[in-house]
Amino acid sequence: MEGGLHLRPDVLGLDASYMPRKYSPVWKAPLPGWKGVLDEASARMTSAVLPPIFFRADNIGAASKAFDALCSLFRFYRVPLAIAVVPAWLSDTRQEKVFRAASVDEDLWNWHQHGWRHINWQKEGAESEFGSDRAPERQYEDILQGRTKMERIFGPNFVPVFTPPWNRFSTATLKALRNLDFKGISATAPFPPGIKSLDGIKHFSTRLDLHARNVKNPANDFALLVDQFFGLSKMKGLAGIIIHHQQMTPFAFEFLDRMLYNLKYVIGARFSSFKEMLKSPDERPARARLR
After folding, report:
1. Which residue, of 2, 24, 268, 279, is most buried by count of CB atoms within 10 Å of its CB?
2. Residue 232 in contact with residue 53, Cβ under 8 Å?
3. Can you tell me the distance from the alpha carbon of 59 to that of 87, in angstroms, rounded to the nearest whole number?
């Protein structure tokens, strides 16, 4: 079984010396036999009925070699990508460079809002831009600023879905999203305590984060990663996979290449997008699932 791109420089634009400043230990260098391990897990998934798969790329606000490579990879496989844009990061100059890598009206891309500034406002505990320490009016103002800028930049290509930074939000966030006519939210399930209803806002849940990983031992984390990938075959409903391209090493790109190849051509997975799921009457609002 052979993957598609194999990091050909003429396609991805990355050379062997490329390394990001920050990355998880598992992605430092290829582990012995990793292709066989991933391929074996993929082969076992062929007998299952996978849920619809979507990919979400977080923390987008500037172009780079890694962002260009990511877009090239998804374009090569014709797989949709939900691009989570941090509005405050996107200057006019950055906007132009981002659109060179991913044309604003190219159907593969689902441009949606990723907070406002992606900064932590919590005084203690887990990081969140829209957590319990933020006043409701401050949350509303930030989300409104972000949506206004997104609509100005992306026009009809803006998808009214909100991805909260660090996948965390509060009841005040939901109220602001409803009032600002957002149609969906993408976060890691389960939701925080006290949230019983999204009042018709659809939830596009993420189940696997490829790059923001905390296990220090590369071999252990790779085994966990492949187990999590295989676990998608046992899930019901949507299965979202999170990408952080700023933390992707050449090995991380090679792995993603082979994962996409296996999902598409070996497993026969169905890829979905925010645009498609917002239109689908079969995708239940999160309210129905959280009762």
Report:
1. 24
2. yes
3. 10
* Cα-based torsion angle of the residue sequence 251, 256, 261, 263 in order, rounded to the nearest 10 degrees: 140
Sheet holding 53-60, edge to edge: 202-203, 184-185, 158-162, 109-113, 81-85, 53-60, 239-243, 206-209
Calpha distance 192→61 (Å, rounded): 27
- Condensed to tens digits (0 to 9), the pLDDT of residues 212-240 reads 999 999 999 999 999 999 999 999 889 99
SS3 47: coil
**Angstrom distance (rounded) from CA 9 to CA 177:** 42
Task: Walk me through the domains of the chain, giving residue ranges and CATH numbers.
Answer: 9-290 (3.20.20.370)
pTM of the predicted model over 0.85: yes
Distance between CA 118 and CA 44 in Å, rounded?
38
Distance CA 82, CA 84 (A): 6
Q: Is the dihedral of CA 232, 238, 244, 250 positive or negative?
A: positive
Q: What is the mean pLDDT of residues 65-90?
A: 97
